[in-house]
Amino acid sequence: MINGVILQKLQSLEQALAELRSLGPVSTADLATDWRTHRAVERNLQLLVEVVMDICQRIISLSAQSPAATGRQAIERCMQLGVLSDAAAYRQMAQFRNFIVHWYEQIHTTILVDMLNRHLVDFDRFRDEILVYVRQDDDHSA
């Protein structure tokens, strides 16, 4: 059975993805002129990356390993465990999270638009890889 924490996090991921996709294609002009959309995009993208990092930390914990010191390390460790493919997109997620959290006053709309319009599929890929892993883990436990 899929871990309850992981399931809850995956549901949060799905909700944020649905909210972002409901916006349709967004331009830099859209974000520059509509602060509500700008904040919604910004917040949901941050939430998505936080969910990725939380799931990675949970998998590390379930593997009886000590927690990773950073989100990026958690992602790297899941790659080493074979949970995630060695994808540059996952490393970029951690970079993006740090950027959005630490440089929040200067977030360029072009970065948000690129993430929204081109990189949501990276979160789909993450979800799919996690689901494959937890199902394999269930098969080995049975």
Question: Quick gist of this model?
Answer:
With 142 residues, this protein is mainly α.
Explain how this protein is built.
With 142 residues, this protein is mostly helical. It has a single domain (4-141), classed as Up-down Bundle (Four Helix Bundle (Hemerythrin (Met), subunit A)). The chain is built from seven helices and no strands. It has helices spanning 4-22, 28-33, 35-62, 71-80, 88-102, 109-118, 120-141. The chain is elongated, with a radius of gyration of 16 Å. The protein starts with a helix and ends with a helix.
Give the helix tally.
Answer: 7
The succession of helices and strands, N to C, reads HHHHHHH
Please give the largest β-sheet.
none
CATH class: Mainly Alpha
CATH superfamily caption: bsu32300-like
Helix content estimate: over 70%
User: Kindly, what is the distance between the CA atoms of the first and last residues, rounded to a whole number of angstroms?
Assistant: 10 Å
Question: What would you call the structural class?
Answer: mainly alpha
Named CATH topology = Four Helix Bundle (Hemerythrin (Met), subunit A)
Kindly estimate the percentage of residues that lie in beta strands according to DSSP: under 5%
Please identify, by name, the CATH architecture: Up-down Bundle
Domain tally = 1
C-alpha Rg (nearest Å): 16 Å
Q: Any low-confidence stretches, pLDDT <50, length ≥5?
A: none
Overall geometry comes to elongated
Mean pLDDT: 89
